[in-house]
Amino acid sequence: MITLAYPWVLLLLLLPLVVRWWLPAHRESRPSLHVPFLDRLSQLTGQRAGTGASVLEGVLGRKLVMPFLWICLVLAVARPQWIEPPVSRSKPMRDLLVAVDLSGSMETQDFTDASGKTSDRLTAVKQVLDGFLAKREGDRVGLIFFGTAAFVQAPFTEDLAVCRQLLGEAQVKMAGPQTAFGDAIGLGITMFDRSEMKQKVMIVLTDGNDTASQVPPPKAAEIAKGKGIVIHTVSVGDPTAAGEQALDVPTLQTVAKETGGVYSAASDRKQLEEIYGKLDALETHAAETVSRRPKRDVHYWPLGIGAGAALVYFAVLLAWRAMQSREQRAVAGKEVPV
């Protein structure tokens, strides 16, 4: 399909007619034939000599070719564009932030890995989360690690492969041995403040109670609710543990309830997989399909057609003149006596 970027330029097609209508014809002085017996000739023929110029008429070929070249030139200036077939792509509509606890208790050997062997909690969490992230095609995913402090491991990105790789590099205590659950939520709120997505979801996984935050988790949840952020909380480990490893289930439930999320608990790998399976079904893929039709400039098409027509015209004209010249020479040769 063809369209014009500047269709108003087509008004220039009328320019030759306007010039012909408003401007006087071109005048050119040339030597003429002097007739000394013009008065006598006028008396004999009864006609009077008039004034004015003779207007030369072009050949039919030029009358056709010149307007055609003007049309081609104006069309090229109007910038014709070829509209390509529609191209569609999925545009992310949601930012999903995953926060993972890397405190010292995550090295407790009470979970199993993918092969069924006993492993620490972090190894199981990374394997389950890796499968969860692999299904987030169409989301922008961010990653936060927290221990004694919280830090951004990956800003929001559509590159899930990089995000999964950074998750796989997580190590226990790399953020400190304690648990700053509230600070992790606060850092997540800061990341969402720079997001323009309408849907903002955060999934926080921890295996202990908050022991190092400057912002209490309930207060952070209250702020998150005001900014439209939904927080799902996931606890891993023994719910009957005591001390620093004791799970603060009421706080996790409060954070989830305050922001409209859900709280889930997993004491083994199977339950953890079921939880992320439910979260995957709960936070279904949300994407907007954006379609556009690329435009390609083809102004060289009318220019090429015009140039081709001009070449053909001048080639025919030269051939015709050469033929006329040859015929005149032949006639002149017959009339001259040898």
Automatic annotation (TrEMBL):
<dbReference type="InterPro" id="IPR033881">
    <property type="entry name" value="vWA_BatA_type"/>
</dbReference>
<dbReference type="InterPro" id="IPR050768">
    <property type="entry name" value="UPF0353/GerABKA_families"/>
</dbReference>
<keyword id="KW-0472">Membrane</keyword>
<feature type="domain" description="VWFA">
    <location>
        <begin position="95"/>
        <end position="279"/>
    </location>
</feature>
<protein>
    <submittedName>
        <fullName>VWA domain-containing protein</fullName>
    </submittedName>
</protein>
<dbReference type="Pfam" id="PF00092">
    <property type="entry name" value="VWA"/>
</dbReference>
<keyword id="KW-0812">Transmembrane</keyword>
<feature type="transmembrane region" description="Helical">
    <location>
        <begin position="300"/>
        <end position="320"/>
    </location>
</feature>
<dbReference type="InterPro" id="IPR036465">
    <property type="entry name" value="vWFA_dom_sf"/>
</dbReference>
<dbReference type="InterPro" id="IPR002035">
    <property type="entry name" value="VWF_A"/>
</dbReference>
<keyword id="KW-1133">Transmembrane helix</keyword>
